Amino acid sequence: MLDNADDIHPLFYGAPKTTEFKKLRKRIVQNVREAVSQYGMVPPEAHDKDAKPPRWLVCLSGGKDSYTLLAILYELKWRGLLPVDLLACNLDQGQPGFPATVLPEFLEKMDVPHRIEYQDTYSIVMDKVPAGRTFCALCSRLRRGNLYRIAREEGCSAVILGHHRDDILETFFMNLFHGGRLATMPPKLVNEEGDLLVMRPLAHVAEADCEKFAKSMNYPIIPCDLCGSQDGLQRQQVKQILDKWEENSPGRRQVMFKALSNIRPSHMLDAKLFDFATLFQAAEKSDNLN
């Protein structure tokens, strides 16, 4: 890693010199590089020096995950390993008490190109969601629509989100427990309109690493007061279950995450993914041929 102030991006100024932090930083960088490579997040033509680099809209909420995402992407870009242009974007959704000056001041100080967009989706969510119901579905749908619009306006080919390994695992179990399906947040997908990629470069990064990294860098964390104001959310319940499993069997999260990329359709029950109807014993096939 490059640690001299003249040789790194401002996002890494003041980084701790401890061996522990250097190992943490290296691990996150490696995790992100693996995800970018494994899921083909950068098109092959982007590596051509004469080609115009793709532009990514990096969504920044002010939470630990999005700060980690932004810093690591700039780390890779700074080292010549990510041939893309980055535009940070914060969508101020009008939540009461949201510190609207924190992110613009931080991004200016860090010399990060950015766009701050104000859209009062908070009032819409509070008006439309019945008492006792969770805000997340409508809130995320409104946020996503605005981010897609901004990406198009800014000439971006991809919307980059800060969901990490634990978010992906929690979503899998939420779908399993409450949705009756095996599905989660994919690391890369095309939006319904077919004109934008949605990607999650932190897919292999543990939440605990994001938290340690952002705290070590002393980034100005902004909590999500809208979601945090509700108790008993499904995601919180699933998180508590996973925390307990991890406590009883350290490393359980990583094993479960590995399983998501080691799927055997022939050992599941979905006849749309595997042709069980034509599966017969070899001897029976031989008899049929005689």
Architecture overview:
By secondary structure, the protein is of the alpha/beta class. The chain is 44% helix and 9% strand. The chain has 11 helices and 6 strands. A 6-stranded mixed beta sheet has the order 3-2-1-4-6-5, with helices on both faces. Strand 1, helix 2 and strand 2 (85-92) form a beta-alpha-beta unit. The chain is globular and about 65 Å long. The N and C termini lie far apart (68 Å). Mean pLDDT is 89; it is low at 1-6 and 228-232.
Shape: globular
Mean pLDDT: 89
Distance between the termini: 68 Å
Strand order of the largest sheet: 3-2-1-4-6-5
Radius of gyration over alpha carbons?
A: 22 Å
Percent strand equals 5-15%
Helix content: 40-55%
Element order, helices and strands?
HEHEHEHHEHEEHHHHH
Main pleated-sheet profile: 6 strands, mixed
Tally of DSSP β-strands: 6
Structural class: alpha/beta
Q: Compute the number of helices.
A: 11
> Residue ranges: pLDDT <50 for 5 or more in a row?
1-6, 228-232
Task: Walk me through the topology.
Blueprint (H helix, E strand, L loop, with lengths): L18 H20 L16 E5 L4 H15 L6 E8 L9 H8 L4 E5 L2 H8 L7 H18 L4 E3 L4 H15 L8 E3 L6 E3 L7 H10 L8 H4 L5 H15 L3 H8 L22 H8 L1
Parallel strand pairs: 1-2, 1-4, 2-3, 4-6
Antiparallel strand pairs: 5-6
Structure keywords:
single chain; 290 residues; alpha/beta; 6 strands
Summarize the structure.
With 290 residues, the chain is an alpha/beta fold. 44% of the residues lie in helices and 9% in strands. The N and C termini lie far apart (68 Å).
